[in-house]
Design a protein that fits this description.
By secondary structure, the protein is mostly helical. The chain has helices spanning 2-30, 32-45, 54-82, 87-114, 123-128, 134-163, 169-195, 197-205, 210-249, 251-266, 271-311.
């Protein structure tokens, strides 16, 4: 009798694990798009620190990402049970934050083009300017990357939660935990590889053989170009992800984008590609408008607070 009960328990556990594995695969597929944006954004955020500090910075951000998920997974489960209506507004606030960061990054670059001294400090600038504190620069990069990761992780968790909405609470918790761990390990493992490409290239140049030298030279040439590309992709991803969140949270805007993209796709031979591209561009435009309006609100609130502060006796 005890043996039969034990076998039944083992069978139940195996069934639950199979369900968790299957749902985790489904959730991973649905969050793959956000994962790509997360990768580009974080590779961009951790670039620009000292070479010997690149891996420690990636590790610090990865630990911060895990802490984010330790907050987000229980919070998402609790909100979905107690305040399901609050999920979309909270996501939209995160989307506005991403769009705001994207607009601020574009403004920094524009100011740098107009006046190089107005750009935020980088590792290269610190090499010729002793007034720039490298430790403070590194700490700012880590904090910024963790803040951005929080928003992207929130979207990943919510998307994953949507795939297991009908499952039991235990299965939901297991799937969200598995997705959080897999995404963190995957993203920051790849980010660590990207930021150390140049070191791998230098190492291969010290090895014997024409092939090793050729690959090493190729990596050294590709590494800076890849990082510059990721900077552009990371900024674009802020508008794409943030704008996508905003568009999906406002049904009329979402329907208009879907209809406009469908019309664009119907008018061209490569309809599917044009429809998907049009949808993404329109969502990015929504993100740019949302970020610009949010910046105006933030600046107005800052100016009002400063005026009220001066008015006090």
């Amino acid at each position: 009798m005890a043996g039969a009960s034990l076998l039944a328990l083992i069978d139940d556990i195996a069934t639950i694990l199979d369900d968790v594995a299957l749902m985790t695969k489904v959730a991973a597929k649905k969050t793959a798009g956000v994962l790509g944006d997360d990768l580009a954004l974080n590779a961009q955020q951790v670039s620009g620190v000292r070479a010997e500090r690149e891996l420690p910075v990636v590790w610090a951000v990865a630990v911060g990402s895990l802490k984010n998920k330790l907050i987000l997974v229980p919070a998402a489960l609790a909100i979905s049970r107690l305040l399901p209506w609050a999920v979309i507004p909270l996501l939209m606030l995160g989307g506005l934050y991403l769009c705001l960061e994207g607009v601020e990054k574009l403004l920094h670059r524009w100011r740098h083009a107009a006046a190089p001294g107005a750009a935020p400090p980088t590792r290269e600038m610190a090499a010729v300017d002793e007034s720039i504190d490298l430790a403070e620069l590194e700490a700012d990069r880590i904090k910024g990357a963790i803040r951005t990761d929080f928003v992207l992780s929130a979207e990943i968790v919510v998307i994953a939660l949507g795939t297991v909405a009908e499952a039991s609470f235990a299965t939901q918790a297991a799937v969200l935990s598995a997705i959080g761990l897999l995404m963190t390990a995957g993203v920051y493992g790849v980010v660590a590889g990207i930021v150390k490409l140049d070191d791998l290239g230098l190492h291969l140049l010290t090895r014997r053989g024409a092939l090793a030298h050729a690959v090493g030279r190729g990596l050294l040439l590709a590494a800076p170009r890849l990082m510059r590309a990721l900077t552009v992709i990371g900024t674009a991803a802020m508008f794409l992800v943030g704008g996508g969140i905003l568009a999906h949270g406002i049904p009329p805007v979402h329907h208009w984008i879907a209809q406009t993209a469908a019309l664009a796709g119907a008018a061209a031979p490569a309809g599917g590609v044009l429809e998907a591209t049009s949808g993404l561009l329109l969502e990015a435009a929504v993100g740019a408008v949302g970020g610009g309006l949010t910046l105006l609100v933030v600046q107005a609130a800052t100016a009002l607070r400063a005026r009220l502060g001066r008015a006090k006796p």
